[in-house]
Design brief:
There is one protein chain. The protein is an alpha/beta fold and 343 residues long. The chain folds into two domains: 148 residues, Rossmann fold, CATH 3.40.50; 161 residues, Response regulator (Rossmann fold), CATH 3.40.50.2300. 37% of the residues lie in helices and 20% in strands. The strands form two sheets. Strands 1-3-2-4-5-6-12 form a seven-stranded mixed sheet, sandwiched between helices. Helix 6 packs across helix 7. It starts with 16 loop residues before the first strand and ends in a 9-residue tail after the last helix.
């Protein structure tokens, strides 16, 4: 299933748990839950990327539907049992929907959803849980990454660009594969340097800006003048290092040019390969609120505006050849003229 989702801007700063401001006014009579239960991925709220996009959807749903809710942060190095307990506590307390932000929640969602068949659960970036009360919100990240690759190749002056992924998992390989294909569609001879920060999430690949800075520095020393990251909070280190060396960075998930925490670097953020995590959270909350909960795999792609390429930087808009190439690539993918690889 492909669902068009509302576009949202990400914002936020983290704490261990937080209630939505409205306190859950449910005047419509259609909704009887306690609000939205949102469990963040590694890096938590304030990552200016993946989790903050989910937070934006949470806030927008609360604003529109007045149902309230609660958000929870993961602990560093926590066990799988901790995730199960977090998801089960939310369901037990009456939150609906209960949403796990990230593939790391798949085992917990599978286990808890079976115990609470009247609660709608959502999981982002995973479609392995097959249950009537689970919505799997997945995205064609490779398509947005292809556009990032086209932009990078057109903007590069050295003929070398870099990709920095957070963790060695299939999801991150989708980003890298799309980026490389897009770059080589512009210049088959372009050099694409690929770096994965860690083998597992527990090693900090998504939550260590210092690792991002180190990887970025290495790629810049090797001649890369455009760096694209898919590394969560670690990506802040990539962006800061790119700005320090006056080369381009391409953000991910959220429009990172617009993030307050990154404003000192924004002149060097060429664009961002976005996925509308916030819109997916919003649409799931809306469906539950209206009494018609979504379920099954719900995919966001370029056609549905579930993924895209944010072009907020005025400097990007002045680069006519880059803009034209990205726009053409986007239309070619939507029209089926280009199929983007996922690995």
């Amino acid at each position: 299933m492909t669902v068009a989702v509302v576009a949202l801007a990400a914002a936020g700063c983290g704490e261990s748990s937080k209630s939505a401001s409205t306190g859950g006014d449910k005047e419509s009579g259609k909704y009887s839950g306690k609000g939205i239960g949102l469990a963040y991925d590694i890096g938590g709220e304030g990552d200016q990327s993946f989790n903050d996009a989910a937070h934006a959807g949470f806030l927008k749903a609360d604003e529109d539907f007045k149902i309230g809710g609660q958000t929870f942060e993961p602990a560093d190095g926590e066990a799988e049992a901790d995730k199960v307990q977090r998801i089960e506590n939310l369901a037990k307390q009456g939150y609906n929907p209960v949403i796990g932000v990230g593939f790391i929640y798949a085992p917990a969602i599978k286990e808890v959803a079976a115990k609470y068949p009247d609660t709608t659960f959502g999981i982002i970036d995973d479609e392995s849980v097959d249950a009537k009360n689970v919505a799997s919100m997945v995205f064609s990240e490779e398509q947005a990454s292809y556009l990032a690759g086209v932009a990078a190749a057109k903007a590069s002056k050295t003929g070398t660009v870099g990709f920095i992924g957070g963790v060695d998992i299939p999801l991150i390989h989708k980003f890298g594969a799309g980026f490389e294909q897009g770059a080589k569609s512009v210049d088959p001879k372009i050099k694409v340097i690929d770096k994965i920060l860690t083998s597992t999430p527990q090693e900090g690949g998504f939550s260590s800006p210092d690792k991002g800075r180190e990887a970025a520095n290495g790629q810049i020393e090797a001649g890369a003048d455009v760096l694209y990251h898919a590394a969560g909070l670690s990506g802040q280190g990539v962006i800061s290092e790119a700005a320090k060396n006056k080369v381009w960075a391409i953000g991910v998930d959220s429009d990172q040019y617009q993030q307050d925490a990154l404003k000192e670097y924004k002149d060097y953020i060429l664009g961002s390969a976005t996925k509308n995590v916030g819109g997916a959270v919003y649409e799931l909350a809306k469906s539950v609120y209206e009494g018609k909960p979504l379920s099954g795999a719900i995919r966001g792609d370029l056609k549905s505006e579930g993924v895209g390429f944010a072009d907020s930087n005025p400097k990007y808009k002045e680069m006519a050849e880059v803009v034209e190439a990205v726009d053409k690539a986007k239309q070619d993918i939507i029209d089926g003229k280009v199929t983007v690889a996922t690995s």
